[in-house]
Amino acid sequence: MILFFSGTGNSRAVAKRLSRNLGDSLLEIDASMDMNIDASHDERIVWCFPVHAWDMPELVRDVLNRIQILSGEVLPHFMVATCGDDIGKTHLSWRAAMKKRKWNPVSAFSVIMPNTYVLLPGFDVDTAEVRERKLEQACGQVDKISRAIKCHSNIDNVTEGTAAWLKSRVLSPLFKAFLMSPRPFHATDKCIGCGKCMTICPMNNIDMLKQENHPIWHDKCTMCLGCYHVCPCHAVAYGKATRKKGQSYLSVSEANIVAGAT
Ligand SMILES: Cc1cc2nc3c(=O)[nH]c(=O)nc-3n(C[C@H](O)[C@H](O)[C@H](O)COP(=O)(O)O)c2cc1C
Predict the structure, then answer these.
(1) Could you tell me which residues come within 8 angstroms of residue 136 by beta carbon, excluding any fewer than 6 positions away?
(2) Do 48 and 148 share a domain, yes or no?
(3) Nearest CA-CA partner of 188 in 244, 119, 236
(4) Ligand 1 neighbour 8 (Cβ under 6 A)
(5) From CA 35, how far away is CA 216, in angstroms rounded?
(6) pLDDT in the model for residue 262
(7) 157 and 46 assigned to the same domain
């Protein structure tokens, strides 16, 4: 079974390719998922998710801590994290959370995909060339990971990046404390009230105000930025931070290529 979370489509496409290669079923992690699942007919559990601030997304951590998996303790578990650049020590956080559940973390992998983090100065989406190159390379990377998972390799193969410990253990907690609040989200005048942001929110954290037909954000946000990137009018803003930033939501054709559907 592949348990996956995705804000903007990258991890969903990777999960689908893994599923095609391994023959494993897919189960999406979101706020309304069933927290009692039966994996007794599965060969393994693969956790597939984006890296957020060199760590697991809050939603994934929460699900990992609470979910009841029938046969979870006898199955091998794997991690496949997608990232824009590097994952720091995310794999160690995942392993620590696994150990707390007395589950068996076998190996961890990362796949570089288009970057979606745009909230700080100096961070933006990739250029078209970089995006294309990343997507092309990701397919081969996921196929290699699938083979490693199939033969039960217990060797981690991740892009930690430079200063990995500092990023995951020092910067990440600061990031989460001060830079991950949903409060600055708002819709600008460009909003046409299509509701796409509300529909794709994995946390059900967005409602449309009836009179104005504009979205409002509540506090239950995992900061995937799906609402920002999916907006067809670039009308979702995060304070002033996103004024000059690009958008990155995996298109259907890109997703099909990565997933191996074409
Ligand atoms: C809040 C947030 C934090 C992120 N932090 C990192 C990071 O620490 N390292 C990195 O390489 N990419 C980071 N990214 C980029 C995503 O991990 C990457 O684009 C991922 O493939 C998105 O997957 P998704 O489309 O399934 O949500 C971050 C993205 C967001 C929205």
Answers:
(1) none
(2) yes
(3) 236
(4) yes
(5) 27
(6) 64
(7) yes
Give yes or no for residue 117 CB within 6 A of ligand 1. Answer: yes
Residue 36 burial (CB count, 10 A): 8
What pLDDT, on the 0 to 100 scale, is given for residue 210?
81
162 and 228 fall within a common domain: no
Give which of 221, 246, 249 is closest to 234, Cα–Cα. Answer: 246
> For residue 10, what is the domain's CATH number?
3.40.50.360
What pLDDT is stored for residue 150 in this prediction? 98
Q: If you take atom 16 of ligand 1, which residue's CA is the nearest one? A: 83
**Pair (126, 208) in one structural domain:** no
Residues 46 and 157 in one domain: yes
Q: What is the 74 CA–ligand 1 centroid distance (Å)?
A: 31
Tokens at 33, concatenated: 């998922």
Kindly state whether residues 160 and 208 are assigned to the same domain. no
Q: Is 134 in the pocket of ligand 1 (CB under 6 A)?
A: no
The CATH number linked to 209 is: 3.30.70.20
Half-sphere exposure of 226 (CA within 13 A, CB side): 26
User: Which residue range forms the structural domain that includes residue 159?
Assistant: 2-175
Q: How far, in Å, is the centroid of ligand 1 from the Cα of 84?
A: 6
Q: Which atom of ligand 1 is nearest to the CA of 250?
A: 25
Q: Are residues 6 and 113 in the same domain?
A: yes
Q: What is the per-residue pLDDT for 211?
A: 81
Residue 255 inside a domain? The answer is no
Q: Return averaged pLDDT per consecutive 10 residues of the chain, 262 residues in all.
A: 98 98 98 97 98 98 98 98 98 98 98 98 97 98 98 97 98 94 96 97 95 92 98 98 97 96 74
